[in-house]
Amino acid sequence: MSLIENKRVLVVEDTTIAATYLARELTTLGAQVVGLARSEEQAIAMTDEFSPELILMDIHLADGGNGIEAVRQINQKHTLPIVYTTSFSDDTTLEQALETSPYGYIVKPFDTKTIKVSCETALKRFEIEQKLSHVNDVGVMLNNQFDGSDRKGDRGRVEKRHHLSSIILDQLSEGVAIVDKHFRINDANRSLGKLFCQEPAQLLGKLITDFGVLPSHFEACLKMSEQNKVYRHKIALRNQDNDLFPAFITMSCLQRDSEEQQFVLTVSDITDLARAEKKLEALAFRDPLTNVGNRNYMKLLLEEAHFADFIQSLVFIDLDGFKQINDRYGHEIGDALLIACAKRLKSELRETDSLIRHGGDEFVILIQESSDVHQLTERILESLSKPYICQGITLTVTASIGIADLNDNDTPEELLKRADIAMYEAKKQGKNQTVKYSESQETAIEYRLLIEQRLFRAIKNHEFFALFQPLVDAKGEIVALEALCRWHGKDVKDVAPKTFISVAEETGLITPLGLKMLREVCIACSLLEANNLAHIKIHINVSPSQLSSPSLIEQFVTFFEDYNIEPSCIVIEISERSIVSSTTIRLINTLRQYGFAVALDDFGHGLVALSELTDNEATMIKFDNSWLVKSENPQMQVLVESLVTMNKKLGKQVVFEGIETFEHDVFARKMGADLLQGYFHDRPRALTEIIKRISPDHKQHA
């Protein structure tokens, strides 16, 4: 039977969703949820009214309430186990919470298993502590029985009392001993003999210090007795077989005014409590989803001087493409994938390596032997890139890995920061690779921060403009232009698009930048029409973050109505990674209904199952340069030709972009490309320059 079954539980949560979730899970585990409180006042009132046997307490409560303060007030009137359930894990909050002596501290999000283990551990610990509570009175009882104040005439009554005391002591489950000032055992009950694996009579005359009680404990007891207090201490004792066991001892003085100073010692075996505390510690330092160490554990290891001396390197791992999978298939599939990735990581590690889940899709490895760390990361990359099957769905992810070596006087934060910078550089270089930290990367990060700081001002000062790269048909005729954003400012000259576009996406500035490009495209459409070139379509790129905005469609429609532009003149280009979200697919389909054409950019990078090509309204597929650089491989030719044929049969136009050489052009044409794009045909130019070359008054020369 589970310890939580039929236990009355009060749930204190400020959000209805979280409270309902906990109530449902607890009910499934067999508990009786007696109430759901949202505020500090409700928590205190419901505790008084329902007398729960366990409370799950959030820290941030409704109406500005504080769960820690609620626990302080509850503890003044009630004795019961309370477990914190919170999103806060910072040192200050944790320190304040620990002052209230909680029976558990769970950091959200958590699963049913974590709830069950935390609740049962708390209940077991409370049960054991309640059993120990009556032990504190044993010393007082014995003091009354053996205080030496009885007169000689009362010998019969004294002997009767002593006999009664012996019976009581032998019935106690706790071990009890009378110890003299030389630490010799003068008397012992059966339970003490059982704890020390000897008969009580065999213990008489032996030194209690041989079993692990220290002389300093007796000195502390004497000091406490001056204040009429009982000395209590948690300790590891040793039995006759030399086996250690955790114990809780209480000690008080007998005959304080007598030369024959004696002590009453009680010993309680707290092995079950120690196990419960270890479970709580495991929850505090272990990630409940993947069962590897968490950030608290990493911090503990890096700040523990003895262990930290052996750390040589830190490896930072970020899964490429995980977010898209999580958005596409949901958190259940995402969690299953994280568990599978963690298992693969553990299988590649050596005994001296420590694996940490840093958060989300990030993992950290603490390395004690760094001589072959690059071989280790190569094995990790190979292992993680193999396909996963989660609930019948085949998934693929890769990893970007950064390595940083420990320097003298490094703080944990500095070491982690350098590994994170190296990981970012691995992503920047194309992902699915390992990069070791160098100072030049930090310079690049500083440059990126400079870009971030200047970006907002650049948008405001109209420092961004559009260049247009032609897309040509098989005859070499320009049939479309792709609008490409460029930045040329006073302080920052000619920043590469791959640099500022990613920064704009991360900072949220992609929306105003996107609107700027949309305005440029509308002006371009008007100019083309004015020069009798309305047949040339304009391609505009839309980022994943823009596609997640519910106002995107309204912005597009409003702009084109204001400029009197037909949506059919526009092709919206989206990356393949954008359409793994069902929300994005619906948005794309809506854009198609308005008359916009949609092109799927960077096709074939593994995020979209081929069967899903029929689930979206993309009218054009763009193969990037990565297919062209492998064009000499016969197997690659077969694959590309098959993909082109398949897309054409699905009614989609096929574009090859990144054509830089004559060989690239020949390959693309041979594969059946409908349109061609790249520097081999033309570089990005100002629209006025292109119009001058292709208007009816100027013949185009290939």
UniProtKB/TrEMBL annotation:
CDD domains in the record: EAL, GGDEF, PAS, REC_DC-like
4-aspartylphosphate: residues bearing it: D58
One record GO biological process: phosphorelay signal transduction system
Domain of life assignment: Bacteria
EAL domain location: 448-698
Phosphoprotein as UniProt keyword: yes
Residues of the Response regulatory domain: 8-123
InterPro entries in UniProt: Biofilm_reg_signaling, CheY-like_superfamily, EAL_dom, EAL_sf, GGDEF_dom, Nucleotide_cyclase, PAS, PAS-like_dom_sf
Entry keywords, A to Z: Phosphoprotein
Domain GGDEF positions: 310-439
NCBIfam families for this protein: GGDEF, sensory_box
Record protein name field: Diguanylate phosphodiesterase
Organism: Alteromonas confluentis
Highest classification ranks of the organism: Bacteria, Pseudomonadati, Pseudomonadota, Gammaproteobacteria, Alteromonadales
